[in-house]
Amino acid sequence: MSKLIVSPQQQAAGTDPVLSITPESAGWEYVGFEVYQLNPGDKLSRETGGNEVCLVLLGGLANVTTAKESWSNIGQRMSVFEQTPPYSVYVPNDDRYELEALTKVELAVCEAPGKGNHAARLIAPSDVGVEVRGTGTTQRFIHNILPEQEPADSLLVVEVFTPEGHWSSYPPHKHDRDALPEESFLEETYYFHVQPEQGFAMQRVYTDDRSLDENLAVKDGEAVLVPKGYHPVSAPPGYQVYYLNVMAGPHRVWKFNNDPDHAWIATRQQP
Fold first, then answer.
1. How far is CA 228 from CA 83, 212, 215, 240, in A?
2. What are phi and psi of 68, to 5 degrees?
3. Coiled coil where (predicted)?
4. pLDDT of the residue at 270
C-alpha cells in the first residue's frame, strides 16, 4: 500500500482514535488529524497544548465543553451523506475540551499550531459557507467550515461532496511553494467516505518533475496525505465520494496554481 494512504485501525476503547495522523507520522510540520467513533455516553477529553483544534461532528449529537465555554446537544446530521453542513467547535491552543457523545458520533479532530489569538467558539451550520464549484462532470458541492476569511491561526477546514462519475480538486492544483502572492505552502489531508461503502475513490498525487506520481484507490474511512504536488480526485460511477480537507502551513492563505497542462479546463468552466 502507498505510504500516502492512512487506513483506520481497530480501536481498543471508545476514546481511542480509529485513524491518527501526526506531524511525526506524516513526516511534515503542521497538520494533525484524528477520527473517533464514539458510542452514546463516551467522553473524549483532551488538552490542546500548542495546537489549535477544530472538532468537526461528521455525524451524531454531542455536548462539548472547553475551559470557558460549553454547548449542549449540538449536531444534526447522522451521516455526511445527508449533505447538510456540520456543527464544529474551534478550540484554541493552551485550552482543553471534553466531548460527550449523546448518540453514536463520528468526530474529526483537526489540529495545527496555534498562537492564542482566538477564543473558543461554536461553528454552527448557518456559519458554514456553502458553494458549488465546477460544471458538468467537474461539479462538486463545498462546505467551507473554517476558511481563511474566518478566525483561526493556522487551520483551514473544508468538506467536499463529489457525485458519482464526477471529478473534484480539479483541474489538478497544488500549493507546495512558500512563494506568496503566487502560491502558498500548505500540507493537506483528505479523509474519505464512499457510499455505498464497498466502493472507492481515485486520487492522483504528482509533482511537475514526477518525483512523486501515485495513483491511489482510496477506500471508505481512509485518509490520504498530500505533502506536495497536484492531487485531483474522481468518484467512480455508482459511488458518491465525500472528503474532509485539513490544510495548514506557515501562512494561513490558500493560494494555489493549476497544472499548466490542464489549466485550460478552468477557463472552459467559466460561465
1. 29, 8, 14, 26
2. -125, -10
3. none
4. 47
* Torsion sign across C-alpha atoms 91, 93, 94, 96: positive
User: Which of the 8 DSSP states describes residue 149?
Assistant: T
Residue 46 burial by Cβ neighbours in a 10 Å radius (0-12, 13-18, 19+): middle
* Contact criterion met (CB below 8 Å) for 200 and 194: yes
CA 213 to chain centre: 22
What would the pLDDT profile of 85-138 be if each residue is shown by its tens digit? 999 999 999 999 999 999 999 999 999 999 999 999 999 999 999 999 999 999
pLDDT digits (tens, 9 = 90+) for 22-59: 999 999 999 999 999 999 999 999 999 999 999 999 99
If 0-12 CB within 10 Å is exposed, 13-18 middle and 19+ buried, where does residue 121 land? middle
Q: How much of the chain exceeds pLDDT 70, in percent?
A: 97
Residues 15, 111, 125, 120, CA torsion sign:
positive
Place of cell 498562537: 115
DSSP per-residue codes, 4-27: TEE-----SSTTS-SEEE-HHHHT
